[in-house]
Description:
Elements: E1 3-8, E2 16-24, E3 33-42, E4 46-47, E5 51-58, E6 61-69, H1 70-76, E7 78-81, E8 84-85, E9 97-98, E10 101-110, E11 119-127, E12 133-142
Antiparallel strand pairs: 1-12, 2-3, 3-10, 4-9, 5-6, 5-11, 7-8, 7-10, 11-12
Amino acid sequence: xxxxTLSDNGDFDDLLTIDSLTATPTAPQPGSDLQITxxxxxxxxxxxxxxxxxxxxxxxxxxxxxxxxLFEELRASSTTVGQATLNMTVAQQKDSVxxxxxxxxxxxxTLAKEIPKARFNVTAEFWNTDDADIATIGAQLELRS
Length: 145
């Protein structure tokens, strides 16, 4: 069976209080699109220089540990923040900000066709420019026939 489960693995003092996490479709397939929606409230602005530490594991084996610039990732994907599509140019990057308050982010990616049938555990730790915790999201992606 193929499935994805998302979880809020953050702390009570994270900048983002997550109300809901949704994955569409709930049974993603290799080579298909996957859309993740995060809804919540931020207690402070999220500013340019914010980053994400992503770890992907297959069982106990760490397959990937990589840091991504949050705003570069948002610009590179089919992403919406709130009601508007996030569409910033490189020139605007240093002024990029997601203001404090109600927060909805939809992030779309295409899963590689070459992903083997297995159970993957993904952790995404979001950090603000000053290294304040924004949020930590866990995902368990199980690809089975």
